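Hi team,

Filling in the usual template for the complex we talked about on Friday. All components are listed, including any nucleic acid strands or ligand strings, so the model treats them as one assembly.

SUBMITTER: L.P.
PURPOSE: interface mapping
COMPONENTS: two
RESIDUES: 530
SEQUENCES:
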Amino acid sequence: MKRRSFLEKFTLSAAGIMLMKPSFAIQETYSDRTNRLVILHTNDTHSNIDPFPDNHSKYPGMGGIAKRYSIVKQIRAEEPNVLLLDSGDVFQGTPYFNTFNGVLEMKCMSKLGYDACTMGNHDFDIGMDGFLKAKKYAGFPFLCANYDFSKTILKGETQVFKIFKKGGLKIGVFGIGVELNGLVPRLAYGDTIYNDPIEIANDTAAQMKKEKCDLVICLSHLGFEYQDNKIVSDKVLARNSSDIDIILGGHTHTFLDKPVIEKNKAKKNVLINQVGWAGVQLGRIDIDFNTVKIGSENLIIH
Amino acid sequence: MFFVSGILAASFLSCAPQLKITTKQIHLDNDIAADNDLSNFIRPYSDEMDVQMNIKIAESKNNFIVTRPGSNLMNWMADAVFSHQTKNKRLSQPTFCLLNTGGIRSSIGKGDVKLKDIYKVMPFDNSIVWVKLPLTTLDKISAYLNKSGGEPISNIQMRAGKLIFNTPVETDFFWVITSDYLCQGGDHMDFFKESIEVIETKTLIRDALVEEAKLQKVLINDTTIRIQ
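RESULT (copied from the run log):
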């Protein structure tokens, strides 16, 4: 691994501070948190603007984007470095989508201050023209690395990746989508070219490391895991990756009790998380940049 | 990422606290207050939608859920589509109905069934198609159902991995009622590629479900596991 002089200093000075700290717990102040990145994330919200009804068999009264906003607001008041991300399938699932064609979802997510989103298969459900009309109301970028839209009306409408600067750190975020053939009607995705997710993810992550990103996050709509290991999932991607630190997944609507760790090609840790669907959960990952060393065996989740 | 060199890292980590990453899956339970500003922003949209969607169309005395290999909602949906099409007589009688479990997007709770509940169950604008298939594809459909673990079926059942028609056919073909999504290659139901003929009804699956729910008044609760 190449060393970054800035970060080396940063780390060492941080270590110095750590050493001066008493070993017992001390009251945390806002300034103590400036070296902490808080990643908040959702996936497969599927147009669930309202909470589930109270007579719902699985999630009575749960979810709701206005509740999600309360939590996001509260965390932003406490933490200076927050990223809010979504792993796709914003569209489809409630009559809000049928009535307003995805416009309300985009408007609400913009109000919540989402930083980035990737496209899920259902985000093609009203065709690329429908998506484009709704996207006008999105105050955040759509990151799609392995969908080649150059021959479609979405040309220039999405980005491969975006680098965020938070608390002196550079966080690279990119998006990886699922194979559309057999999942999305051909008419809806038109001349979109599907590129190999592992190859593109590795190329993109390597490029972001070159751009000196301190952390590389993949927003994935591949799905958490499949019985058939030939199907690329987040687990398969993690095992075959080199420079990805965190995969925030979607598509399989998987509820995880806590994030899962997989070893990458260099036997370094990759953290994978997914928070079910419909916005009944919000994932939170706090990374303390004073002490963290992602990609090492020392990575510990509490 | 900041990777200090191995030795530095080791010495650094040896004196560093163990806390590296803290994670939490925050549950959005009932006790969390909704943000007022956003609720107010959503309300006019919600009101406009409710005018169209909050119409009661039937009742439900049970929770209708989706679980493979079969469940009451899977049965209800396939039966409703099959029954709807059987009434709309065409040249032939349909042999059975096959839909997809992945296409049922919600459960239906006990109580009033409103138009919006049907929209949640079937949000897609997929329409009903009739597909004429050679009898030889039946084994392929069985194989598909065995592999997938179960899809909604009506007027047909599976026993010990083999499909048995409720209404036997004397021809070397049969008619399946399904969705245009599946017929066009969705969910990799590749046997539809062998179709002899396809009739597009242009009737939305959702519209058929709404009509059937209205006729039933109380949703028919059939919990038979049809795939065994």
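MY TAKE: Residues 36-216 of chain B form a domain with the 5'-nucleotidase;  domain 2 fold (CATH 3.90.780.10). Confidence is low (pLDDT under 50) at residues 1-19 of chain B.

Thanks, L.
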